[in-house]
Amino acid sequence: MSAHVPVAVVGGGQAGLAVSWYLAESGVDHVVLEAQTPMHHWSDTRWDAFTLVTPNWHCRLPGHPYDGDDPDGFMTRDEVVAWLDRWLEDFHPPLRTHTRATRLKHAPDGGWELTVVPDGGEPQTLTCDEVVVATGGYQVPIIPPYAARIPARIEQIHSAQYRNPEQLPDGAVLVVGTGQSGAQIAEDLHLAGRTVHLAVGGAPRVARSYRGRDVMTWLADMGLYDTPVAQYPGGAPAREKTNHYVTGRDGGRDIDLRAFAREGMQLHGQLVDCDGAALRFAPTLAAALDAADAVYNSICADIDRHIEREGLDAPPPSRYEPVWRPETEPTEVDLASAGITSVVWAIGYRPDWSWIEASAFDGAGRPMQTRGISEVPGLSFVGLPWMHTWGSGRFIGIDTDARHVADVVARRVGVAGGLRLAASG
């Protein structure tokens, strides 16, 4: 590895490689550092029945839009991996795999100094003028402290480790969390005939299709994926919201937890503790289900207004009505009596910026940035949820974000006029 390179991109996921694509096209000398293999999270942290929740046409990377024959469908995990592999067949980034960045600090003579460690090797020092951090916002799986009080006989895994129902021991499964992963994993287990206890959090839900089209296609037409976070309804706090749960499985459908309950899934409020023998839940189930349905109906109403405003021809409107309501909300469940033998934690991740020695983060630990460009000269970010728009953490927004970051970086390292591209192709 060269001792100095003008630009270092840390992270070889789709966001970091998209920046690399633009830098390469503009002739900017750079290196991409990846701790494992490029875009490995798609194969390493998704379960066997995983599908995208956004339509395939949302998938677009620099020079590589979706190239299949089902733009309105939902690729499986393996199809996404194959699509990404085809991108790398034509695009050969200056990639250093199995090379982890462990420290970033200001260099004594200006610019940056990176400490990098190849697998099985000794730490090396790389200097650069610009650093683009593309490690994403989902780095450290969250497992609460009280998990240590759950008996050792009960197997515990994070959603990133879940692959299929067969990997878990016989018996009932507790799934904690109802974001996209938790809701879909609960469904996967339920469809396999497992007894599922689901601790329902505050995630909203959304219809899969409405008035003749996929809801996310409607939302794209309405400009929601392109609206900057500062202009988004609710403003910057929107960054803290959990994504809506829905599924692309079997061609795409709603996830209705009330329907699952009617079929035998045991729903509970938020899990708050375990005393070794019993789980303790907050009495929040009814309110959480009502709130999720309210968001569902609100989004449909927004689409109704869009259809009316634009004078579009569409099937008539409708409104979701609950198919089940909890009669009671028990706040304690005995593990042995319930037959629970495993727990899947699906309560998300937290970022880890501890390796970056720079005043680039706010009091909540979020990077202080505008469209990926931080307030610290020479330090940029890409691939963060809500970095610029709702689409920033999704395939639909990566190309635009990466191009902007690469353009700024190219100008700062002396490429006249920034990127020499008219479009991503």
UniProtKB/TrEMBL annotation:
InterPro entries, sorted: Auxin_biosynth/cation_transpt (IPR050982), CHP04046_FMN-dependent (IPR024000), FAD/NAD-bd_sf (IPR036188)
One Pfam entry name: Pyr_redox_3
Keywords: Oxidoreductase
SUPFAM superfamilies: FAD/NAD(P)-binding domain (SSF51905)
Domain of life: Bacteria
Gene3D superfamilies with a match to the protein in the record: FAD/NAD(P)-binding domain
PANTHER family (alphabetical): FLAVIN-BINDING MONOOXYGENASE-LIKE PROTEIN (AFU_ORTHOLOGUE AFUA_4G09220), FLAVIN-CONTAINING MONOOXYGENASE
Protein name in UniProt: Flavoprotein involved in K+ transport
Organism expressing this protein natively: Williamsia serinedens
